[in-house]
Amino acid sequence: MMLFSIFSYAEALKVALVLDKGGKDDKSFNAAAYAGATRAEKDLKIDLKYVEATDTNAVENLHRSFARKNFDLIIGIGFAQKEAVRKVAAQFPKMKFALIDGEVTAPNVRSLLFEEHEGSFLVGALAAMKSKNNTVGFVGGMDIPLIRRFAMGYAAGAKHVNPNIKVIENYVGVTGEAWNNPAKAKELALSQFSQKADVIFVAAGASGTGVFDAAEEKKIYAIGVDSNQNWIKPGVILTSMLKSVDVAVYDTIKETQAGKFSGGISRFGLKNNGVDYTLDKYNEKLITPEMKKKVDDLKKQIVDGKITVPDYYKKK
After folding, report:
1. For the ABC transporter substrate-binding protein PnrA-like domain, which residue ranges apply (predicted)?
2. Which end of the chain is more exposed for a tag (fewer CB within 10 A), N or C?
3. pLDDT(219) > 70
4. In terms of DSSP H, where are the helices of 171-288?
5. Greatest CA separation for the chain
6. Would 280 be classed as within a structural domain?
């Protein structure tokens, strides 16, 4: 009995999740990370703590605080945490860190990166197939290379299907506030709709709800991002460009618990189901069998290397 008791009370893996200002309820990027972490909490019996970094300047101190408290794994959500993770990981070389959407070269940091342009190509193709006005739109959050990468892939997918289609592109802002400004995103969407765009892809965190509202008002279509957002406004959201942030977070926690954590880059693209488009009960009536067949064929061609999706990161 004594041995059983000793092993039953083994200390749980301590995991900290540092979300950005969009918070765990943004129905997008942060929500997906939080879902992955809480699933790990349930399945793996870890000790999970999370914070929402409402002030970007506080991120470094949040990471340092968790490191000082000897958390086994500290996960930063979003490119804006790159410098904070780099600094704190160097100060605490025995602690393990993971970073979503940012690359830090250190033996104790795992960088979790996604091929956003590949998934965006697919939803761009769907947008072009659905458009009746030969015009589609893109609303990005913060104007940064990461979001430009979404936009470039989306435009490429749309033009692959229809070389003559017009793609309108706007951004909510140039600071972190852009991720949490639905009113501005709605204004941009309404402007695009007034220019005949009848499908708009939004990659803007919590700001995306403004685009969904505009699409509902104008009885046109929007495309969600990061997590499966089809359920938010069934019949309005054509599809969502899925980034499996939840899977990346869950798998990293699981590997850390199993003693298999390693630093370096983990990439998630179409080949390993890291990105995709979504089809479920909420949007199945919006995507015809012909559209599905076409986009699935494009997906296979990308995976097989027959189509190379332009990548903003490699832009000359």
Report:
1. 15-311
2. C
3. yes
4. 182-194, 208-218, 245-257
5. 74
6. no
